[in-house]
Design brief:
single chain, about 350 residues, alpha/beta, 8-stranded mixed β-sheet, 6-stranded parallel β-sheet, 10 helices, disordered C terminus
Length: about 350
């Protein structure tokens, strides 16, 4: 077992929750149902919000600032649940203080910020993982295993979409450039991550978007390509609801994932010359909206002394951020304070 900060004892893993919004509440609700997890502290920018959240979930300590949570030595890992524009600041604060971190997606605003967090975690010997719950979902893992084992032959094409009907008013965070608004970072991260889970980082990116008056993307379509000939057709939107389906086509078959591809209840495998095979979620794995699988993976990794998860590797997170940057570059979305040379992450130093 590693002697770095990531390692924790064989006991309940003590969590701190940074932010008190909807995703923080959903994650905490799942955490409190896990017998080997203990939520010991929560922080918000206001003490009143932290106190209300603590009372709701029976959390013993509440802080009205992020730094106090980061300095809390009784915390094994911090879940960062702020909007993504604040991820660099919040996760960085925790890593600087020696905390292990699970950070919501999109991981950061851009690849530069993502690379800074990865470098900081490596410097501190701390665990860091993007909260890409889709990668930890048992049925998604089964799908990937089938593809990796050649069930549909060589992957030729991936399709995925994620759109919300809206409409979202100009004051909403999804329309605010200062908060990293737009469809791509909130929703498009799922189709991109799904494609790259199966194919890795693309060699080329083409994209088009419809932009809001504020300069964020209302909807974006992207075509990713790989040197081996595979393509991915991806779409995201905050201007219209989409089926949120996915498909993976190979040289010897196809996999169709119905509505909610990022937390599926089932998928269908079509192999050439054979009847369709349906794979369904195990009821014992909990409801499809459960975030317990990523929490369980974090705790497994911490107990093993690992500084990153093999299910959600840091290089994969950086690769997704590079693709998101490339898409934004093609469609002309840039956030306040960004400059062109800042949008690429430094290469990871081999372990």
């Amino acid at each position: 077992m590693s002697e770095g900060r990531a390692a924790v004892a064989e006991q309940s893993v003590r969590w701190g929750i940074l932010a008190t919004g909807g995703i923080a509440a959903a994650f905490t609700a799942d955490l409190v149902d896990l017998p080997d997890a203990e939520v010991v502290a929560v922080a918000s920018r206001t003490r009143a919000s932290a106190d209300a959240f603590a009372e709701r979930f029976g959390i013993p300590r509440a802080y009205g600032d992020w730094a106090s949570l980061a300095r809390d030595e009784d915390i094994d890992v911090v879940y960062v649940a702020t909007p993504h524009a604040a991820h660099r600041e919040a996760a960085g604060l925790c890593l600087e203080a020696g905390r292990n971190v699970l950070c919501e997606k999109a991981f950061t605003l851009n690849a530069r910020e993502a690379g800074e967090l990865v470098a900081l975690a490596k410097e501190r010997g701390s665990f860091l993982m993007e909260a890409m719950w889709m990668y930890c979902n048992p049925l998604v893992r089964r799908l990937k295993a089938l593809v990796d084992d050649g069930a549909i032959g060589e992957v030729r094409h991936v399709q995925a979409d994620f759109g919300l009907a809206g409409p979202f008013p100009p004051a909403h965070r999804l329309r605010d450039p200062a908060q990293g608004g737009g469809a791509l970072l909130d929703l498009g991260v799922y189709p991109v991550s799904f494609a790259q889970l199966l194919l890795g980082e693309p060699s080329d990116v083409t994209a088009r978007a419809t932009l809001s008056p504020e300069g964020v993307d209302l909807q974006t379509g992207a075509l990713l390509s790989w040197d081996g000939g595979a393509l991915a057709s991806l779409h995201c939107s905050i201007a219209g609801g989409t089926p949120t389906v996915a498909s993976v086509t190979g040289s010897a078959g196809r996999i169709d994932v119905p509505e909610g591809f990022f937390h599926p209840e089932r998928f269908v495998l079509h192999r050439d010359g054979r009847g369709p095979e349906e794979f369904t979620a195990d009821p014992a794995d909990g409801p499809r909206t459960s975030l317990r699988h990523e929490a369980t993976e974090v705790m497994r990794a911490l107990r093993a002394g690992e500084t990153e998860s093999p299910l959600v590797p840091l290089e994969g997170t950086l690769a997704v951020m590079r693709t998101l940057d490339a898409i934004r570059d093609r469609v002309g979305v840039r956030y306040p304070g960004e400059t062109p040379e800042e949008d690429r992450a430094p290469a990871l130093t081999p372990a």
